[in-house]
Write a structure and sequence with these properties.
alpha+beta; 5-stranded antiparallel beta sheet; 7 helices; disordered N terminus; Integral membrane protein
Length: 267
């Protein structure tokens, strides 16, 4: 995480930037929804193909704010620099700001130095229309946001989860799966190939070698897979469970088809 930086985002008010994330069809905080339009709807935004950048910070009073900017390139450059441990002055031009929302949609473990502890701002109808502050999901419960967060973790820590399968977790063959829950997911994923879902329901990201990491989400389920390997399924109806799907006879062809219609981050 980068150190807080002072930014003049709105009307000269100081915003201490803590982090930023992209909100595009190919990259968006999946905790917000199963697809890009759904994620935009949570924030009251139009799902434009170009996407947005979300800048999370605190004002001088310590209040949490999420600034939405159309300058996706600026935010992408900042995130890339921070990931490499480099400094980057993220200061969106005021003309690129399309919304300022109270609260944060994501949980942050950092805060700006020299200001009060993070807290929700007092309602201001002139600025935010009186909407309730954004809040991160309650991780003590299991539901769609937690299921998607779990899928995020598997995608980030693929090697560790894959190793657990090799250490004895039962393989589930896509062609012989007796669990009606996983079979239903595979059928719904197959339906995506025949009738493409909303943007962001299927995403493809870089993996090692020539493989791709695939992510697919739907009503009540998430799938994480590598095109050269197996898949993992998470279900709303199975709190905390991660179910592996072996390559079997069906999975390789299905993953290849999904990769062909998935949205990808800009090169």
């Amino acid at each position: 995480m980068v150190a807080a930086e002072e930014q003049n985002a709105l009307d000269g008010d100081a915003l201490y930037v803590l982090t930023a994330v992209l909100l595009t069809p190919a990259q968006f905080p999946s905790v917000l929804g199963d697809d890009y339009p759904a994620a935009c709807a949570v924030l009251g935004l139009e799902p434009y193909a170009e996407g947005y950048g979300l800048v999370l910070g605190q004002d001088g009073e310590g209040a949490r704010w999420t600034v939405v900017t159309e300058d996706v390139t600026l935010v992408a450059c900042a995130v890339a620099a921070w990931d490499c441990g480099m400094e980057y002055d993220l200061s969106p031009d005021g003309s690129s700001v399309v919304a300022v929302l109270p609260g944060w949609p994501l949980a942050l473990a950092v805060s700006a130095p020299g200001v009060p502890a993070p807290h929700d701002p007092a309602p201001d109808p002139e600025l935010d229309g009186g909407v309730p502050p954004l809040v991160p999901p309650d991780t003590s419960q299991w539901g769609p946001p937690q299921r998607r967060l779990g899928a995020d973790e598997i995608a980030l820590q693929w090697a560790q989860w894959r190793e657990q399968v090799e250490d004895g977790v039962e393989f589930v063959d896509a062609g012989e799966e007796p669990d009606s829950g996983v079979r239903r997911v595979l059928e719904e994923v197959q339906a995506y190939v025949e009738s493409p879902p909303p943007p962001g329901r299927i995403r493809s990201a870089f993996a090692s070698g020539e493989a791709r990491t695939l992510r697919a989400d739907g009503p009540g389920w998430s799938v994480v897979a590598r095109t050269d390997d197996i898949a993992f399924v998470l279900l709303d109806e199975a709190p905390g469970e991660v179910r592996p799907v072996g390559r079997g006879r069906e999975l390789p062809e299905l993953l290849a088809a999904l990769d062909g219609i998935a949205v990808r981050p800009a090169a």
